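Hi! If you just cloned this repository, the fastest way to understand the data is to look at a raw example. We've pasted two of them here, unedited. The first protein comes first, obviously.
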Amino acid sequence: MRRMLLDNTEYLEQLKEVVENSGLDWNRLDKKSVMVTGAAGMLGSGMVDLLIYLNEHTDLTINIYALGRTESKLRQRFLPFIDKSYFHIITMDISTEMHMEEDVDYIIHAASNADPAMMAKYPVDTLLANVVGINNLLDLAKRKNAQRVLYVSSGEMYGQPDDTLKNGFYEGYCGVVDYANPRSCYPSGKRAAEVLCQSYISQYDLDVVIVRPCHCYGPTMTATDSRAVSQFFRKVLNDEDIVLKSDGTLERSHCYVTDAVMAMYYVLLKGENGGAYNIADQASQADIKTLASLIASTKNKKVVFDLPDEQEKKGFSKVVKAVLDGQKLEQLGWKPQVHLKEGVECTLRILENI
């Protein structure tokens, strides 16, 4: 199913708008090599899609190294392009030492276990993928004299909000994380990885930038993603009602995938070395119940409530309000184009068509 995404007219038009209307200098990527880890994941695959678009629809030539753990997933996702001279698949676990003969100019590290069910089941793997994985990539960047590393962190790294927050988590905030809870493997791993990035900048003069995405959604979502928003879309596409495993009052920031991809390229090409930037569409803030109702109503379905089992509870975040302040990124010139209602509708249209 996923291999047809880059044939979808609406999705291609969205990539075209990112390229033509972002105001970014894409020529900086010409004749460069770009590695994207987590290339079969939701954000990583979107980053690769845009690089493919630049190769196929502009005069630019960009060497793409798409890295993932499972070759079959990478081949299925990018099947029409795997024989292109500019496209290279790398199959490996980033928690192991990296050996690469070719030079690489830019490394985009989007490989991370962001799936709540997998976090609950494999907290050790989740933590190591974040900390050991980024260390291996930073070491590779140092050996290859890479121009820049973009680390995809998470808004979860902020921990719990307190009463001082007015407009959501800002980049300098640091809240409480419960280190006695194995679910903290994810936010704690992201924090440690960010400190490692800053340490490589300080000790080895590496150039590293960081993004902290909010809850992103869109047609690049994987079929196995257990996050609530992904399950909502799958339910209505299967002609089923949406099942909520909570009261739905948790408030979140959201961002459509092509806007998130554009944001990451903004930071890659314009961000300050060592800088961290939230990715959040301020106009797409909503609680889980409102989002579920919006998705359900689009297909004339209902939202029903059910109690989670103990294994599901282990994957739940304890944060009661996950809202990010996106002003710092907007100061670079980024402006989201696809807000929540439109994003939900076009996600469903594209997924139905593919």
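Ok, and the second one:
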Amino acid sequence: DAYRFLYNSRSDAEKRQHIEERLAKADWIVIDDVYVDFYEHLPEAQHAVVKQYYRDLLAGRLGFQLQRTFKVYPSLFGREINDDRAELTFRLFDHPRIYIFRRAAPSRQP
């Protein structure tokens, strides 16, 4: 529901509240670079709340620490192909980079 809630025409206050409520219940966050890469290029005016969420998460300001990042690259005949600089839609669905964050202190929510 987060995708539908945050990327539809809700007010910034509603988006912030949604993020805060979800973060209060989470001990782990797993995201891929699609969101990070995609939202960096969108207009700040329409996506300020979501962009700030990703900036804060990646900077460690939300109480979560990055535990691990990994990516599986495509290969051909046993040779790995680094496609980090390829167009986003080329790697969007197939093999994004994954980020795993853990809450710095366990959540108090049941």
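That's it. A detail worth noticing about the second one: The mean pLDDT is 83.
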